[in-house]
Amino acid sequence: GSEDAGRDLCLRLTSRRVPENAAQKDRTGLPFGVTVQPFKPLPHFPVDASALPDPADEVARCGDCFGYVNGFCGLERDGWVCILCGNFSYWSSDPAGDRGKPRYKRNARRNELPEIALPEYEIEVAREVLTVNPREPLGTAPVYVALIDTTAPEETLELVRSAVLAAIEAVGPDALFGIVTFADRIGLFDVQAAAPSVRRVGLGKDGGLAMPLEEALPLRRLLAPMGAFKEELAAAVETITPAKSRFGSAGFSRLGVGDGTIDGGDGPVSRRAFGPALEATLAWLGADAVETRGEGRGAGDVGGGGDLRHPSCRVLSFLAGLPNLGDGALDDEIYRECAADLDSPDHEEAAKAADALGQPRVDFYADAGARAALAAVVVDVFSLGGGDGAAAFTDLASVAPLTEQSGGALYHYDTVGKGGASDAPLPRDVFRLLRAESQAHHCTLRLRTSAEFEVVAAYGAAVPDDVYPGLYHVVRCGPGDCFAFDFRHKSAAGFGRRGDCPPTAQLAFEYTALLPLPPDPATQAARYLRQRRRRVCTAQARVASSPKDVFVTVDAECVVSLLAHKILATAEEKGLSEARLLLSDWLVILTSRFNHETGVARFDPEDTAAVDGAFTSCVPLQQMARMVFALLRSTMLRPRGVQPDERTRARALARRLDPPSLSRLLYPRLSSYADVDTQAFPRHSLTRTAVTTSNGAVFLVDAFDEFAT
């Protein structure tokens, strides 16, 4: 097929022609790897209940490496040769499904089968129809819980109320929705009672809650069916006021609400029991029945299916500041020590301060996220800043592992509540998150390669299995979520000079989708299809004849995506200064390798040719150099002038983005229009000259999460 076809696949190699061997790779200065966007929409296999993929047990698999048959394999009359390991497997003679004849053997139309004709296809592993029980919907309906920090000031809490109302509008009428608040105690909203009320639970001496939430209010009472209690839920949201207030609207008890503050020396400090509230809520939702086992995840754990307490479950956490009470409590002492150095003119001092504030200081939230993942509970965190100095510090570096482990989203707003609710992004972000395209849940991912190369490192929000090497678990995966893998050649010979061993990679991605069905014809009860699917994507590249061959076929966006993953991992392990130094050195090495291999300038003292540092003869490398410079200047790696929570949010976002989105985040796309209907130029460089010399009347800057005109 076309060399450009790889850009449209779930797999994107760093170049369409890959280095022949490790020596040639070193001569290019470029990484060798792949980015994986496993849940990217496939035109031929829509994720909806009407799609009927072939059963998984009908598709042939290699008897040696367990790879899946594909169009790159050698297909013979009696069997096939695996393109990954070279093993020959015989075709099965058993009838395939209801067709009454073998799928491959003596099938004149074998080449038209999806797994042979298409580089990407899906097969069905299992399906189950879930019918929501109107009398006892718990366990058969999707669950959403809003966990709200009421220590926020009124203007911020107004935004939170708007966001929760947006969530109520976004979820379906068959969902169950619950409201939990926290300050120095926990509030449980019972909207199903004849007289709606709030049950309060205080903290015990051990740092947790004084009693399990189930004893204060049964879960079935907290989780109200959206179809029957939507108005009551909305009314309950409107009664939520800052914890300092002892009074509220009629119909909702506020007995037992303290003032929610303590004296912090510099003035009142809000008492924020986020840890106890989170722990108790997760236990309430079923995470108390699972245990974590180190950093990995076993093959039998949820993530590959298994029995789930809820078809889907999501906790929306709104956090207005530093969690400082009970289990998981944090303090701002380290921020006060390092704050002055964050803006230091000495980059080394600023980098050390950033490193100190970028490390998790407790394991509580990572452990909570791991338990949530095993119970298939997704936890999102919306960090609501708005203060100055230490008052705005939430220590997201300690909280972020909660979302990373559980598959949730992490948002941070440093100006929330200052410009009014009408144009604030929080409600829109919540609505879009819940109304997004189909999501894959309880996923497993494996990347197989042909025998001449192997995976040496994996990056992204995936947890390695602690039993099977090369298998990864992903709690939740959206269409735009991306992972990266670094490769190396297994031997000095590599792929061979004649290209006899074409480099091939195959992704196997298994996931569960919860899809709406028409109501039950007899009872009109809501129904869902819980479908387990397996997606297989196979990509193959050609072998480069020279380093120049690699340069001209490089995928700049893919390379920068892989680089960003590697550099961010280095920043966490070895510090910001080391990461920046490595990235700068890499760009210098790439420049020297390019000039040497293309003959522009050589490593010779007598060579007076000017070094081409702008890669004028190679357009893909020009784009890459700009993006690497932008990465060095970005919130993720810039030492000075970046608040720690803002840096944590930016890094969490970058780890999930696909290559095109990450490139827009790093180096915004500037396009011009002659008028509102006519595009003048699709992409300009971000220079004053590009703007002044353009004939455009309207300019649009797309920075992924921000637009400017």
From TrEMBL:
SUPFAM superfamilies (UniProt xref): beta-sandwich domain of Sec23/24 (SSF81995), Helical domain of Sec23/24 (SSF81811), vWA-like (SSF53300), Zn-finger domain of Sec23/24 (SSF82919)
Record InterPro entries: Sec23/24_helical_dom, Sec23/24_helical_dom_sf, SEC23_SEC24_subfamily, vWFA_dom_sf, Znf_Sec23_Sec24_sf
Gene Ontology biological-process annotations: COPII-coated vesicle cargo loading; intracellular protein transport
Pfam families tied to this protein: Sec23_helical (PF04815)
Molecular-function GO terms, alphabetical: SNARE binding; zinc ion binding
Gene Ontology annotations for the cellular component aspect, listed alphabetically: COPII vesicle coat; endoplasmic reticulum exit site
Domain Sec23/Sec24 helical: 555-663
Protein name in the entry: Sec23/Sec24 helical domain-containing protein
